[in-house]
Write a structure and sequence with these properties.
CATH topology of one domain: Glutaredoxin
Largest sheet: 5 strands, mixed
Strand order of the largest sheet: 5-4-3-6-7
Order of helices and strands: HEEHEHHEHEHEEHH
Strand content: 5-15%
Distance between the termini: 174 Å
CATH class of one domain: Alpha Beta
Structural class: alpha/beta
CATH architecture of one domain: 3-Layer(aba) Sandwich
Length: about 375
């Protein structure tokens, strides 16, 4: 037989040990680090809620009446009822609330604590800043900061990961702070330095990621390094029209409807079209428009064009001092006879006539 008092004493000792182990295990699970979890709304995105919750006084609040002139510092805490780290953080934020207000930002805390618990804490520590109550953790889930490491059904289930969002007046997240674990929290200096950095005005002319431009262009920053649009070197400029290229052998002269222009050799120089003041030294005989056969081209300088009326059935005869070039060795008899008559007429002409125009019989 065994001693009954000793048996029950051993059972009580065993139960104490089991309860102690369970308490330690629960505390370890609550205090596990949460670095692998998501950290809520991304910077640059709008917040997913209007923060329509009750504060410590039971009054329903929202973003528009909670935000400051430039925005809000929204702090997610676990609980002011049983978390000593959260209690110290809320007290520090409350003591520096005026500093944030002077910078244009309000400070608001959010936890799963009931409004009565928040009111009791605020009264004891003289906290005047808004403290929002989210007993069902709806807003905590919407922001994506629910601590999923906590076992459902335990005291800490529904708490958020301790973190801080700096939100602009336009509901856009400007910055956020999350630490590993539950003990480390963002400091007041880190928050004020971040706000100061965001409030620095953009310098004109610097390469910045984004800036707002006045629609009328009065306060738009100056632009550096931008020059005028370069001209296309290939495209022709206005008025720069290339002249047409003449085929080889053609000579461009001032034309007269009745003037006959002889065909020049490609290598022969072209004289300007003007009436000479003195007879040329060795001009070629101009072909009359009387139906005579065209003489072959001679190796001689080109005769300048003389603007004179056309005489029907008559050749334009130069001055007497003109020496007629020799005819080719073999000529047509009729052509040779016509040339001879023209030479005789030149010899019989007066000494200094203006332009002698003898009548030359028509070649049959």
């Amino acid at each position: 037989m065994y001693d009954k008092p000793l048996f029950f004493e051993r059972r009580r000792s065993t139960m104490r040990i089991l309860l102690l182990c369970l308490t330690v295990l629960l505390g370890v699970m609550v205090c596990l680090p949460m670095s692998a979890q998501a950290e809520g709304v991304d910077v640059g995105k709008a917040i997913p809620s209007d923060l329509a919750l009750s504060d410590q006084d039971g009054k329903t609040r929202n973003f528009s009446d909670l935000t400051g002139k430039k925005g809000m510092v929204l702090v997610f805490i676990r609980s002011v009822e049983w978390c000593p780290y959260c209690q110290a953080q809320v007290k520090e934020l409350s003591d520096n609330a005026k500093k944030f207000k002077d910078m244009g930002y309000s400070v608001v805390t959010l936890s799963y604590d009931p409004a009565l618990k928040l009111k009791a804490f605020a009264s004891n520590l003289k906290v005047s800043m808004p403290m929002l109550s989210d007993p069902r953790s709806d807003i905590i889930r919407t922001f994506g900061v629910l601590n999923t490491d906590v076992v459902k059904g335990t005291m800490a289930y529904g708490t958020p990961r301790p973190g801080t969002f700096i939100i602009g007046a336009d509901k856009i997240v400007k910055a956020k702070f999350f630490k590993d674990g539950i003990k480390d929290r963002v400091t007041i200096k880190e928050l004020t330095d971040q706000i100061t950095k965001m409030d620095v005005p953009l310098s004109p002319g610097k390469d910045t990621r984004f800036y707002e431009i006045d629609p009328e262009g009065k306060t738009a920053p100056a632009t550096e390094g931008i020059t005028g649009e370069a001209l296309d070197a290939v495209a022709p400029l206005p008025g720069d029209v290339p002249s047409p290229v003449l085929p080889a052998g053609d000579v461009q002269v001032s034309s007269t409807p009745s003037a006959t222009v002889p065909t020049a050799q490609p290598s022969a120089p072209v004289a300007p079209s003007a009436a000479p003041t003195s007879p040329p030294a060795n001009p070629a005989v101009s072909q009359p428009s009387v139906g005579m056969p065209e003489m072959p081209a001679l190796d001689a300088p080109v005769m300048p064009t003389i603007d004179s009326p056309v005489v029907p059935e008559a050749a334009v005869v130069p001055t007497p001092s003109v020496t007629t070039p020799a005819a080719p060795a073999v000529l047509d008899p009729e052509l040779e006879d016509a040339v001879k008559k023209a030479e005789d007429a030149l010899k019989a002409a007066p000494a200094n006539p203006a332009i002698n125009k003898p009548s030359i019989p028509t070649t049959p």
